[in-house]
Amino acid sequence: MAALRKLARPLLAAPFVSGGLQTLRRPEAVAEAAQPLVRAVGERVPSLAGDPLHVVRITGAVQAAAALLLATGRVPRVAALTLAATLVPTSLAAHAFWTVEDPEERARQRARFLADLSAVGGLLIAAADTHGKPSLAHRVRHALDQRHPVHAVRRPVKAALARTADRARAVAAALPGSR
């Protein structure tokens, strides 16, 4: 499984490295498509209002950096989640097929939108991959159990009591005359 991760992560990250660097080099090409989305978000959240060129450059830099982190296996879960979070507004701005009148162009934009949607799915799977290690929630519970030994004992004792009570009920129900 580790070999699969070492191959899959760079493959998943490659389009984001390329796209992010291209956006950094020529943000004007993307800024026009992003302008309606930047304006709409800026109306609802004034702190996010700004120049579409600046927003596009920041998004490109974030995508390129997160993709490089994902490809190299450095904080891959955070990098994948960051890429997924930046891909959603990027796809909404760049591939708004529902606004296109021409049927052929609409079909092309829909296909690109769905490809981006599948990339979001892959990124979410990558974000959930713990690489065989315990999740953060498990590690926090374990750390708390280590801090308070009573809590470490309480959970297994409660579980054992519940199992014993279930077995006792099952045995009592199986006895003749207990119905």
Textual characterization of the structure:
The protein is an all-alpha fold and 179 residues long. It is built from seven helices and no strands. Helix 2 packs across helix 3, helix 4 packs antiparallel against helix 5 and helix 6 packs across helix 7 (149-174). The longest helix is centred in the middle third of the chain and has 26 residues, at 103-128. The termini are far apart. The mean pLDDT is 86.
Fraction of residues in helix: over 70%
**Strands, count:** 0
Shape: elongated
Strand content: under 5%
Radius of gyration: 25 Å
| Overall pLDDT score | 86
Class from secondary-structure proportions: mainly alpha
Low-confidence stretches: none
Report how far apart the termini are. 53 Å
Write a short abstract of this structure.
81% of the residues lie in helices and 0% in strands. α6 packs across α7.
